[in-house]
Design brief:
Elements: H1 2-21, H2 23-28, E1 35-39, H3 43-48, E2 66-68, E3 106-107, E4 113-120, E5 126-133, E6 155-162, E7 167-173, E8 181-190, E9 195-204
Length: about 200
């Protein structure tokens, strides 16, 4: 009887520990998830690090925003771009953070170089990294759509089917001629699957 109680206590403690820390999801990378941006900080990272709360499942797996590649001709549907079509990550699509109020922003300066950074939990063979930005006058009051974005990336970084390290940085020039709040969409295209990873970052000029 004493042995059963001890095993049950250990099992319960393990479950509570995993539920509290999200360690299982984050260490394994989840079933499908493998990378996100933290410069400029993405919405999924803000949810994971606790800056934004009430995000739902994405808080445990910021690396899992994976969807069809081929953006903008293909890829996630309009209104679901920031979540890559994952309904359980729907908080990422909303124009305001969970509970209301603006998403925190990273300050950038148009026409100047910026260092973009990705964090990976699984390093896939990579086609490229592309970065898109919202147009002047974009509609800030609905979930991000292709019509809100310049559909030509302002930065493309070819990666020639290589596998990135666990952290990868590269630099590019932030487009000028903008003011106020904008969104940068980063897309990591995987070479050997049909998918890509998406990350939306809110910035202020």
């Amino acid at each position: 009887m004493r042995i059963r109680t001890t095993k049950k206590a250990k099992w319960y403690a393990g479950v509570v520990g995993l539920a509290t820390t999200g360690a299982l999801v984050l260490s394994s990378g989840g079933a499908t998830g493998h990378g996100y941006t933290d410069l400029p900080v993405s919405r999924q990272k803000l949810c994971q690090n606790g800056t934004v709360t009430g995000c739902g499942d994405i808080q445990w797996e910021p690396q899992s925003v994976e969807g069809p590649k081929g953006f903008p001709a293909g890829g996630p549907a309009d209104g679901q771009i920031c979540s890559a079509n994952h309904t359980n990550f729907g908080a990422l699509n909303q124009p305001t953070k969970p509970g209301g109020g603006a998403w925190p922003t990273t300050r950038v300066t148009g026409g100047q170089s910026y260092t973009f950074r990705w964090q990976f939990t699984a390093m896939h063979a990579t086609t490229d990294f592309k970065y898109y930005i919202t147009k002047n006058g974009w509609n800030q009051n609905h979930a991000l759509s292709r019509s809100d974005l310049e559909t030509t990336p302002f930065l493309t970084v070819p990666y020639n089917n290589q596998r990135p390290p666990s952290t990868l940085s590269h630099s590019g020039t932030i487009p000028g001629g903008r003011s106020g709040h904008h969104v940068i969409l980063a897309v990591w295209t995987v070479a050997d699957t049909a998918n890509a990873f998406y990350a939306c970052s809110d910035v202020t000029f």
